[in-house]
Amino acid sequence: MKTVNLGFLGCGNIGGGVWHLLNEMHDEILARDGLDLRVKKALVLSIPLARTDVPAEILTESAEDVLTDPDIAIVCEFMGGSHPAADFMRRALENGKTVVTANKMALALNWHSLQAAADKSGAGLYYEASVGGVIPIIRALTVSLEADRIDQVMGIVNGTTNYILTRMAREGSDYAEVLADAQKLGLAEPNPEADVEGMDAAYKLSIMSSIAFHTRVTVDCVYREGITGVTAEDIACGREMGYTLKLLAIGKRRGDTIEARVHPTFLPADHPLSRVDGSLNAIFVHGAYCQDMMLQGRGAGDKPTASAICGDIVCAALNERPQRASLRYTEQPDPALTLTDDWTCRFFIRVSAKDAPGVLAAVASRFGQEGISIATMLQKGAGVSGRARLIFITHEASEHAMRRALAALDPDIAAVESVIRVEGE
Ligand code: HSE
Known about the structure:
The chain has 425 residues and is an alpha/beta fold. The chain has helices at 13-33, 64-67, 85-94, 104-121, 137-144, 159-171, 175-184, 193-196, 199-213, 232-240, 302-318, 359-369, 399-407, and strands at 2-9, 35-43, 59-60, 72-77, 98-101, 125-126, 150-156, 223-224, 243-254, 257-268, 280-287, 291-298, 338-339, 344-354, 374-380, 387-394, 397-398, 414-422. It starts with a strand and ends with a strand.
């Protein structure tokens, strides 16, 4: 039997979930793995305001009690945010303590210095719960698929936005209406910006694609568009044309070029990701040898997150040598690989156009001048002021060429209302 003392940095919803799992599963983990896991200290902001289901004698308001206690082997960080969480994790690693975290923001922004501290002291840095909650994507990429060449990671990695888009699609409601309701139900944060503007997904994509492509894909390299501009009309038009709208985090490698982007995306209705609804997360991976695979599960919530975190704790406690991916922990991307913002994909374009002879030809001609070929077109009869809605789905086209074509359209003839990228065909 091996006794392993744990220290918590933070003890809110996630810390409480981990505390309960460790209590409930203590004897089973002891019997199965020979590990006696004990929480020795838990840092909280205020002991009088702390949750009451965790014993008062382990609570502390001093981070030093966790970071410098020689008996604590594993520090579990549940504070959220980049600072002071990253500084505390770095200090724990420098002190030779293994760190387990679910904090995608702190990890994505400080990965280099955290991993450098871990490498120097020989401690482990584990972060399975940082992407997709309970979905074991980090272990899949770093262990199971380590021998493969991964060329695509594409996922629904934000439950809040998937919940909002699912309800908009089902009810035909507008974004603001569904968001307000989701906030009332506690399913969206009072300040939803990090979720709805795609930041949360961008941190997760930075982590996933860095591991998948064995290079550093920093958050500022991730192109990002959130869901605040999505309309019920676009979702309905897409559905009529056989597509489902999702906020996707997409990392692709084509030869020596890498792209990383988060944006609303139309997928064919029969694509596996199209069927992932509500607050569920799912990540679709393609590799030269593994080919297509998809992992699906709960991306948030105290219990699923606790499951992933405790999996890391057990893994760290059982393995003297920390597991790590063959990522080059440089500040900058691998110079042999180029990060591009000129990817190719299909596009859904909705314009409000004059309903008059020659208008369709004028739009098609602009696309043609940029080498963009139209695959499907739908006209919705003339609306107010004699203008019609024209919806185009293009064949694969370059992002830059599409931007040039749209910028060259005369808004009096055809005003661009929506540009949504199409994937998965
Ligand atoms: N806010 C995230 C989501 C969960 O809505 O999925 C934590 O990463």
